[in-house]
Amino acid sequence: MPTAQVPQFINLESKIVGPLTLRQFLFIGGGGVLIFLLNYVLQTWLWILVSIFIALFSIALAFVKINEQPFNKIIINALKFYINPRLYTWKRPQKNKQIFEEKKPIITEKKTSQKRLTVEELEKIAQELEEKEK
């Protein structure tokens, strides 16, 4: 029986740009481009503050994982959680205040005042019903 090799490390991304994966390269490159463009828009002291924040954020997006989940996925899930409306309703079940008791069989008393039909009377009624059906 031929043996098949089981693939391992399937959750690792391929290293495309040096030691970085494509996702890591795009996050760091996007942060670098944003810092470069803000250099022409902001004053120097403000640009330094904003660029430090952007650099730290882009590095965190590229390398930080929480519970084996990438940081960008954590942020997206957090935003979905806070943006989407949540309405949790709980309907209290109706409490039956009746105590269920075992049903007792209904015993009917035979009344002797009722007239009992004889065989002849039953045959007569059966014939009348058959005539009506025809």
Q: What gap, in angstroms, lies between the N and C termini?
A: 81 Å
Give the proportion of residues in helices: 40-55%
Determine the mean pLDDT: 85
Q: In what range is the share of β-strand residues? A: 5-15%
Which structural category fits the helices and strands? mainly alpha
What does the secondary structure layout of this molecule look like, with pairings?
Layout: E1 15-17, E2 20-21, H1 22-38, H2 44-63, E3 65-66, E4 69-70, H3 71-83, H4 119-133
Antiparallel strand pairs: 1-2, 3-4
Helix pairs in contact: 1-2
Keyword list:
134 residues; mainly alpha; two-stranded antiparallel ribbon; two-stranded antiparallel sheet; 4 helices; 49% helix
Task: Summarize the structure in words.
This protein has a domain at 15-83. The strands form two sheets. The chain has a two-stranded antiparallel sheet. A two-stranded antiparallel ribbon has the order 3-4. It contains four helices and four strands. Strand 3 and strand 4 (69-70) form a beta hairpin. Helix 1 (22-38) runs antiparallel to helix 2. With 134 residues, it is mostly helical.
